[in-house]
From TrEMBL:
Molecular functions per Gene Ontology: alkanesulfonate monooxygenase activity
Listed PANTHER family: ALKANESULFONATE MONOOXYGENASE (PTHR42847), ALKANESULFONATE MONOOXYGENASE-RELATED (PTHR42847:SF4)
CDD domains: Alkanesulfonate_monoxygenase (cd01094)
Organism the protein comes from: Rhizobium leguminosarum bv. trifolii
Residues forming coiled coils: none
Keywords for the protein's UniProt record, in alphabetical order: Flavoprotein, FMN, Monooxygenase, Oxidoreductase
Domain Luciferase-like: 31-322
Protein name: Alkanesulfonate monooxygenase
Gene3D superfamilies to which the protein is assigned, alphabetical: Luciferase-like domain
GO biological process: alkanesulfonate catabolic process
Length: 352
C-alpha cells in the first residue's frame, strides 16, 4: 500500500436515502436541495470524490445536477454516472467537457451500460454498444477527430471545441460481473468497480480483470463500492445496522429489489447469493453484513464495526489491489459525518 486510495461518498439521486430501510421519508427523497446537502457534507468531511448515480425511473437528472454542483463545490471530485443507452456519444462528449470545465477539471465518469428507456437489448449487443461509446467518447475528449464506422454509430466529426481542462478524457469508472461486462471493462474502462463480496472473490475478480486488460495492452485500476455502518463500538454498529431493518417486512423488501432496472443482472444475482450464504445475523464474513440487500438491489452489503474494524477491512481490500472506495450509509449525511470523523483521518487517501 504505497499509494493513497481514493475515498468517495454517494449522493442519493435515485430516491435511495432512508432512516429505516423500506420506509420512504419525505425529508430524504431525492430533491436538488437534499442531494446538494449530501455533496456539501461529503466535501466538508474531506472525501475525495462523490458518486452521482443515475436511474431513468427514479430521482433527478444526473447531468443537470452535476453541472449545478460543479459551481457549488471547490475541492471534491464529481463522479457523474451516464447511461449509455440514453445518449448520443458526440453530444455526451460535449456535455462532459463542459461540466469538467465548470468544475475546473474535477469530473470523472461512471459508465453505465444501460438500455434506452422502454427498450430491451440483450447483454451482448448492449455491452458492445458501450464499448463503441467509450471509444467514441475517449477519442473526442482526447481532442482527436473521429472517423467511426461501427455497429451502432457511424460518425465522422471533429472534436467539440470545448475540451476537458486537462486536454484528456476524464477517467471512466465501470462495473459489471457478467462475461460481457468484464470484456467491456478490459476494452475501455480506467477503473473497474466491484460490489461487495468475500475477500477471495475480490482477489479472483481483480486477477481476472487485470489479465484481460493486459492482453489488450491496457492497465486497469480497481474500486470497491460498499455501504458502511461505523460507530464507537462494534456493539453500537451492529445495533445501528439492525435498526435500519427494524421496520422492513419481506414483501416490501422484495418489491424494492424487483423494481430496479438491474434486478436480473449477474452482479445483482451475486449479491443475492451472498445474502443467502450469510449467517443468521446476516454476516457473510467478518464485518461484512448483507442485511442492506433485503431492501436494495445493486450494492447490497455493508462494512459494519468500530473504527478499527472498518479501517482494517478497508486496508485488507487495499492489500488486494483496491485503490478507490465508493462508500455510503443511511441516512447519507449522518453516516458521512460519522465516517469522516471516525475513520477517514486514519486513511492515506487522495483523488486517483
Amino acid at each position: 500500500m504505497t499509494t493513497a486510495c481514493e475515498v468517495s461518498w454517494f449522493s442519493a439521486l435515485c430516491d435511495d436515502d432512508y432512516e429505516f430501510l423500506g420506509c420512504p421519508d419525505p425529508r430524504l427523497l431525492s430533491s436538488f436541495e437534499h442531494c446538494r446537502d449530501i455533496v456539501l457534507q461529503a466535501e466538508s468531511g474531506g472525501f475525495d470524490n462523490i458518486l452521482l448515480p443515475s436511474g431513468y425511473a427514479l430521482g433527478i437528472d444526473t447531468t443537470a445536477f452535476a453541472s449545478a454542483m460543479a459551481t457549488l463545490t471547490r475541492r471534491i471530485k464529481l463522479l457523474m454516472a451516464v447511461r449509455i443507452g440514453e445518449n448520443w456519444p458526440a453530444q455526451l462528449a460535449r456535455q462532459i467537457a463542459t461540466i469538467d470545465r465548470i468544475a475546473q477539471g474535477r469530473l470523472s465518469v461512471n459508465i453505465i451500460s444501460s438500455e434506452m428507456p422502454g427498450e430491451t437489448l440483450a447483454s451482448g449487443p448492449r455491452y458492445a454498444r458501450t464499448i463503441e461509446a467509450m471509444s467514441i467518447l475517449r477519442t473526442l475528449l482526447d481532442g482527436k477527430p473521429l472517423d467511426h464506422d461501427g455497429t451502432f454509430w457511424k460518425l465522422k466529426v471533429d472534436p467539440p471545441r470545448i475540451a476537458p481542462l486537462s486536454g484528456r478524457c476524464p477517467q471512466f469508472y465501470f462495473g459489471g460481473l457478467s462475461e460481457d461486462a468484464r470484456q467491456a471493462a478490459a476494452e475501455g474502462a480506467d477503473v473497474y468497480l466491484m460490489w461487495p463480496d468475500r475477500m477471495e472473490a475480490v482477489r479472483e475478480t481483480i486477477a481476472d480483470l487485470r489479465s484481460r486488460a493486459q492482453k489488450r495492452g491496457r492497465a486497469l485500476r480497481f474500486g470497491y463500492r460498499v455501504h458502511v455502518v461505523v460507530r464507537e463500538t462494534e456493539a453500537e454498529a451492529r445495533l445501528a445496522a439492525d435498526r435500519l431493518l427494524s421496520k422492513l417486512d419481506d414483501a416490501t423488501g422484495a418489491a424494492i429489489r424487483a423494481k430496479s432496472l438491474d434486478s436480473q443482472s449477474v452482479g445483482v444475482r451475486r449479491q443475492t447469493e451472498l445474502r443467502d450464504q450469510a449467517g443468521s445475523e446476516g454476516y457473510v464474513e467478518d464485518n461484512l453484513w448483507t442485511g442492506i440487500g433485503r431492501a436494495r438491489s445493486g450494492c447490497a452489503a455493508a462494512i459494519v464495526g468500530d473504527p478499527d474494524q472498518v479501517l482494517a477491512k478497508l486496508q485488507a481490500y487495499r492489500a488486494e489491489g483496491i485503490e478507490a472506495f465508493i462508500l455510503s450509509g443511511y441516512p447519507h449525511t449522518t453516516e458521512a459525518d460519522l465516517f469522516a470523523r471516525l475513520v477517514l483521518p486514519r486513511l492515506d487517501h487522495g483523488p486517483l
